[in-house]
Amino acid sequence: MICRDGVLLGADTEVTGWSSKTHEEKIITFECPYGKIGFVMAGNGVFAQSAIQKCQAGLRATPPERTIDKIEKILEREYRRHVFQHPSYATDPSLGYQFLIAFWSTNGSVSLFSTNQTAIRKVNGFECIGIGSDLASYLVLPMFYEGMADAEALYIAIYALARVKDSIVGCGGTSIFTNIRARDGNIGTLTTNHEGPCKEIEEYARAFDSTVHRLLLWMAATNMEEHDFVANVTEDFNQEILGIRSRWKASYEMRVRKLAEANPTFAPERIREIAHKLATRGWID
């Protein structure tokens, strides 16, 4: 996702083979002479990683204005070599792969690109790739808007990826999110193993959908007595939401207290600022 201050990349970690599955990082970042590159890969991991390594080597002496052109040429060559020219290309659907590519330039700008076989295009807004892309796009679209704050984008990405992992075969494991800030190229990483929004939203995503769907059914039941509808909303729906919000808030305040105890010279406002940035960006200034 393109955010107000940069770009957010996210991926699960499950890699499924013919008879086994492993868990590996699908987000790779590295520096080039005039910036930083972030790749998110989907599909054939061996071929995808090989192509990324070729890009990393090929960008060592590439000026910033030619970075994306260079990446496009390398990716096209590698895709033709590994996929189109593979002897099993016509019968093996597991050969293909896709990328999301974030490019931070030292001029203080960040761009997002998406690949499809040998084609590459610039993304404005958000893009989803991989076997769960259709469901992820469906979930993200109603909530996404241009200029979204980093934290909001993260919350949406956590929710969408959690539901994809619940629903799509081959998606699972820890979710990893990488922020690249446009101003200075600062990179932060968060996972659903971190205490805070990443872990909390993932754990509640399925129950949230069930709760909201139940509310829709109540609203549509025009034969239900109005006092019963009001009781369901205020005594069931509202209490459940308020209870979860209270637990999340208490967890946040506990993290703030621990941070304050470890940094007694910091002002309370600074402590809360740090706590928020650590939970939503993975870095502090």
Helix content: 40-55%
Mean pLDDT: 94
Oligomer: single chain
Order of helices and strands: EEEEEHHEEEHHEEHHH
DSSP E strands, number: 10
Instruction: Report the C-alpha radius of gyration, rounded.
Output: 22 Å
Give the arrangement of secondary structure elements.
Layout: E1 6-11, E2 14-16, E3 21-23, E4 27-32, E5 35-43, H1 45-58, H2 67-84, E6 97-105, E7 109-116, E8 119-123, H3 133-140, H4 150-167, E9 176-181, E10 187-191, H5 197-220, H6 226-262, H7 268-280
Summed up:
With 285 residues, the protein is of the alpha+beta class. Helix content is 46%, strand content 21%. Helix 5 (197-220) runs antiparallel to helix 6 (226-262).
Descriptive report:
- It is a single chain.
- This protein has 285 residues and is α+β, with helices and mostly antiparallel strands.
- It contains 7 helices and 10 strands.
- A 5-stranded antiparallel beta sheet has the order 4-5-6-7-8.
- Strand 4 and strand 5 form a beta hairpin.
- It is globular.
- The chain starts with 5 loop residues before the first strand and ends in a 5-residue tail after the last helix.
Features:
21% strand; alpha+beta; single chain; 5-stranded antiparallel β-sheet; 3-stranded antiparallel β-sheet; 285 residues
